[in-house]
Amino acid sequence: MTIPLRDRIGEVVLELEDISLAFGGVKALTDISFDVREHEIRAIIGPNGAGKSSMLNVINGVYTPQHGSITFAGERFNKMNPRRAAEMGVARTFQNLALFKGMSVLDNMMSGRNLRMTSGIFAQALRLGSAEREELKHREFVENLIDFLEIQAHRKTPVGRLPYGLQKRVDLGRALAMEPRLLLLDEPMAGMNIEEKQDMSRFILDVNDEFGTTIVLIEHDMGVVMDISDRVVVLDYGKKIGDGTPEQVRQNEAVISAYLGVAH
Amino acid sequence: MGFFLETLFGGLMTGMLYSLIGLGFVLIFKASGVFNFAQGAMVLVAALSMARFAVWIPQWLGFNNLILANILAFMVSAVLMFMMAWCVERLVLRHLVNQEATALLMATLGIAYFLEGLGQLAFGASVYTINVGMPKEPAFILESMFEGGVLLNLEDLTAAVIAALLVASLALFFQVTATGRALRAVADDHQAAQSVGIPLNRIWVIVWTVAGVVALVAGIIWGSKFGVQFTLATATLRALPVVILGGLTSVPGAIIGGLIIGVGEKVSEVYIGPLVGGGIEIWFAYVLALVFLLFRPQGLFGEKIIDRV
Lengths: 264, 309
Hints:
heterodimer, A: 264 residues, alpha/beta, Rossmann fold, four-stranded antiparallel sheet, 11 helices, B: 309 residues, ABC transporter involved in vitamin B12 uptake, BtuC, two-stranded antiparallel sheet, 72% helix
């Protein structure tokens, strides 16, 4: 289904080195290193409590690791913060939907254009020509995204009223509105039925294919992950136990025992 | 009937003033999730600054023009509110991100005392007047319908129009501009707003400035009616029931809550007051707020609080 690795995948764009993160005495992540290449779909999988979401939050700058470094687009950081990450082109979606519930689908996605808005607050308030033109330009971009995600019929609906599957799609849309270089998806298919999962898989592949966006995704559902990702990192109890193509990971002893338990 | 209408109008005018103060509470609560105890102190400082600069500026620059003096004083006061907002964000809010609501509440209590002290230190503690040239003479309307017509205070009417304009332009600003959208986004979900690169710090400065300007307008109207003095800071606590009634998260709620309490106070004082010996106006709002807390704690328009078990 995916285009062969060597045609599409570029240089390393994100590199994590020896990341360790602890909350008080609880070690969430221990010495984790892996890299993500440009244009690839990279999955992070693992059983409950393996540290997947923590890993994503480290990349995104929500958590600051006690140890280790993050290199993104050639710049090395010991800590990120969410705003700088956003400025550098990292967008994300949330496991438990963090949409602006009172706002319409359109407004939610327009808020993703925030960093690209340059007109000042007074120009906006007085509706000066420049601010007006800028708004229109961004509106056009967002309308195209709405078409892409097939949510035209709901553009004016407050997102709080949409069914769960569509809310997930709006969450993706808001992240895409940022025109991200790196897209982090936190369990994009959690709680979905088969049909919704298939739709979401298709959107993820299309985004990767059409916009060339690099994608890091966390997923519970092994089947889905193996189908759509180029390479997979496996975490268990905050440690990396496997890394490679879906085929390699499937045959990895440590991974099998983490998922199925070890015979004693 | 004519007398009832007079009472009603009187109540609506006072209520409008409560609405303005309540609006300040709601704006800040929505955007930063903190109940801002300093709103009253902000009204006081803004009114003091307006009263003093309207006198000082003509003295310093040597002109004698009431309108120009008021415009300049308003601008200086607005800039002062912006500086206050900037300092509050830089010195207080920034260090309390993700802290418990109680910590933030206590911090605003501190800001309140600080502002009250600073305001009186800078502008003096006497009673001042604000004269923005509001019409003082009363007018009579509906003379054809009632004998003697209905007495309407033109000053109140002007104030009501100004307040309505302010609220309408704020609503428009929130709905149609990109910054307004960012403000609504922050009010909805901090974490998500950060993830799309909306700068929380800048948004807080904007919101506190807007709340400051609302406080300034409320302070001018109040000061022009009753004079500016220290009690202004505590008088604004009477707007507390307004936000309980309307809901802390609802802008329309603050406006309607203010009007209900304004009217309720006046009407109950006039019609029920004589039966129980008067003095209802002082506690009416609080009793109403108490009733609401018992039966509808989220207020008329607030978001329903749902706790999962």
